[in-house]
Structure to design on (361 residues):
């Protein structure tokens, strides 16, 4: 996994020249499913964005998929198509970038220091922005269930939880700036959860003004918050990212029905900064579903799996895969049609992230 992360920029440069070719071979090698292949293949994005999506997907699938992908890149027909791969097969650490599976001894070396520290007391701050009552949009009924569930699970995981209700956009910025300027010395992590209405690549304050995802996470980058450098920064966003339904309890969507899907330019690029995890409740352009009395599908599933899997020491990639699987099986009725949803994690994590229970780290 680390080999792909370390060479991601190079791989994007090389493979983007023929994204369809490599995408087809990855699908034939069964590294990705037919559905995942079709989703990337049929997207309107350019070749580089398709490769970003493919590499992020492979990394998200874990070490086995990453090793299968590296073995695929080592095949002669692939290197004939992408000659630069031959020149780049140089070691990173003790493993060739395009080598096969590591030996047991090498794997032990890899595993040393491959996990983020998660033992401070408290673990760090968990910020919850819960916007329910809007000036021009209908209230987000059921959102209090999400805020309560997040507060409970992250308090249990050892975080200092602070919840902010019904903030305007400038008030959200002020709180984010306040915590970004704080010292996080002696803390191992930051978690920030935003529950609100949303549009493409942004959430809304209760005054219906936009706060972009990029602005939210930038408050905690290496420039603005140096005491979080090389520490995991985790964001969970429960909000619509467009107005399209993923077709297949009364439910409600976390977005304005009058919002057009192209109301805002989509910029998928994460900051250059490392150590970010951004868990989006839904994929780009689509609605996110929330039960009026039970809370949102995504946040409720997330909290349930954190509660079940953290005591077993499961890393966050595995937990979010389970959340994706569970949410994808749910159906509801929205605007008279069957509605479905699939969350989308994005990340630049460099190590395993495991939320150890206090006293067990």
């Amino acid at each position: 996994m680390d080999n792909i992360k370390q060479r991601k920029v190079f791989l994007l440069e090389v493979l983007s020249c023929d994204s369809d070719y490599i995408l087809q071979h990855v699908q034939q090698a069964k590294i990705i499913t037919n559905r995942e292949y079709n989703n990337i293949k049929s997207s309107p994005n350019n070749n580089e964005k398709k490769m970003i999506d493919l590499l992020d997907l492979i990394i998200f699938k874990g070490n086995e998929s990453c090793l299968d992908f590296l073995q695929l890149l080592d095949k002669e027909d692939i290197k004939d198509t992408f000659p630069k791969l031959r020149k780049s097969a140089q070691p990173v650490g003790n493993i060739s970038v395009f080598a096969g599976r590591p030996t047991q001894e090498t794997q032990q070396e890899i595993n040393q220091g491959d996990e983020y520290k998660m033992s401070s007391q408290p673990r760090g701050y968990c910020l919850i922005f819960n916007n329910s009552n809007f000036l021009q949009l209908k209230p987000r009924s059921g959102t209090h269930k999400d805020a309560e569930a997040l507060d409970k699970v992250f308090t249990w995981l050892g975080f200092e939880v602070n919840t902010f209700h019904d903030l305007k956009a400038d008030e959200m910025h002020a709180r984010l700036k306040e915590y970004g300027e704080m010292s996080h010395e002696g803390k191992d992590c930051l978690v920030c959860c935003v529950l609100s209405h949303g549009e493409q690549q942004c959430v809304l304050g209760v005054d219906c003004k936009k706060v972009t995802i990029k602005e939210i996470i930038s408050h905690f980058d290496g420039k603005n918050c140096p005491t979080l450098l090389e520490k995991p920064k985790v964001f969970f966003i429960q909000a619509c990212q467009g107005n399209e339904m993923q077709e297949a309890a009364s439910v409600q969507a976390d977005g304005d029905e009058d919002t057009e899907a192209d109301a805002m330019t989509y910029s998928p690029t994460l900051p250059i900064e490392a150590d970010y995890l951004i868990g989006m409740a839904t994929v780009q352009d689509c609605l996110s579903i929330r039960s009026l009395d039970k809370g949102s599908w995504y946040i409720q599933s997330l909290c349930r799996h954190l509660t079940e899997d953290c005591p077993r020491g499961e890393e966050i990639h595995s937990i979010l895969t389970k959340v994706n699987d569970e949410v994808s099986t749910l159906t509801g009725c929205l605007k008279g049609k069957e509605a479905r949803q699939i969350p989308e994690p994005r990340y630049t994590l460099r190590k395993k992230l495991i939320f150890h229970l206090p006293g067990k780290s």
